[in-house]
Amino acid sequence: MKFNRIIVIVMDSVGAGGAPDAAKFGDAGADTYGHIDAAVPLAVPNLRRLGLGKVAHIHDVPTDVVGAYGLMQEISAGKDTTSGHWEFMGNPVDNPFPTFPDAFPKELMDLFTAKTGYGYIGNEIASGTEIIERLGPDHFRTKQPIVYTSADSVFQIAAHNDVIPLEELYRICDITRREVCVGPYEVGRIIARPFVGEQGRFVRTGDRRDYSRLPKRKMVFEYLKEAGCCVVGVGKIGDIYAHIGLTESYHTSNNGEDMAELTKQLLAHRRDKGLLMANFVDFDSQYGHRRDVAGYAKCIEDFDAALGDFLPQLQDDELLVITADHGNDPTWRGTDHTRERVPLLLYSPAFAEAVDVGIRQTYADLGMTIMDNFGLTGLEFGTSFLNELR
């Protein structure tokens, strides 16, 4: 089968357990789908129709599967958003991005001050919602940004819009990406975390921006763009890939906006050959890291309901891929991502039968399949499963 357009939806962090190297990451037994379903049995009829029940540890419901299905396991050295997404597009991360379990060293923060012109408060491992509430008053008093990290390879900078305007926060983050977090401090992402409100009611806004480090290998987006294909990113996609190879990028703030923009771009580019890719972030940011099992379950069910409206809009020459970039089991210890296999669900109205594409040995199989579909070569990693689709 060949398709005029491929649409990829990444359900950020919705893993399916069973990664063979999970123990190396302290995650043996983690299972995002399985543990959520055990606690709050999931009602996901559309995902089941695409084969989710065949690959995730969820309770059995007799369902006629209309899509192809399988699992993918990661070979990158990390379990973060950047590692997962880059591997999708043919660029596995060989060495883990640096993390800072004891917060950032003095020499790095001195460089931050010298380059940005700002001091800082915080510099600790913290929850983003908790730290702005705790340090918000000091932020107003000192006029300095709040700096913090997590178990991920991130340098997060929070500021209230009335203290440091949004564009100034973006400027600080851009400088931090290019001139501060370099060499041994080259974290996976610098994240701008703007917030608004008053003490006791501080709220992060949807104007978050991620500043990814630059990849060292050429990825699928660039090959597609060079071949004259349309490459459209929705949500965090532009930030994750440092806007390299995209022909268009649309920022969104939540899953609802993701689906609305994805649908809009599906229709707007109906005749364009290429790739449309979206990251749905709420599963991870709103519920996984916060260990909110019930909220995570509802988020999956809401996505499934929205998928019910999206699927009928697909045409025979379009292929939908639904996957995840890592796990984030809300029943697991800590607040970090979890090393898991991820579902690989594929659908086109042109499919004649359901197909099990098995356990893929790298996320890069997705990228190689996209390249194969458009007759392109150049990737070093991955095996296409295009010829397995029926």
TrEMBL record:
EC number: 5.4.2.7
Enzyme class: isomerase
Record localization: Cytoplasm
CDD domains given in the database record: PPM
Binding site for Mn(2+) 2: D284, H289, H337
GO biological process entries: 2-deoxyribose 1-phosphate catabolic process; 5-phosphoribose 1-diphosphate biosynthetic process; metabolic compound salvage; nucleotide metabolic process
Binding site for Mn(2+) 1: D12, D325, H326
GO-annotated cellular components: cytosol
Pfam families reported for this sequence: Metalloenzyme (PF01676)
Keyword match Isomerase: yes
Residue span(s) of domain Metalloenzyme: 5-376
Protein purpose: Isomerase that catalyzes the conversion of deoxy-ribose 1-phosphate (dRib-1-P) and ribose 1-phosphate (Rib-1-P) to deoxy-ribose 5-phosphate (dRib-5-P) and ribose 5-phosphate (Rib-5-P), respectively.
Protein name, entry field: Phosphopentomutase
Gene this chain is encoded by: deoB
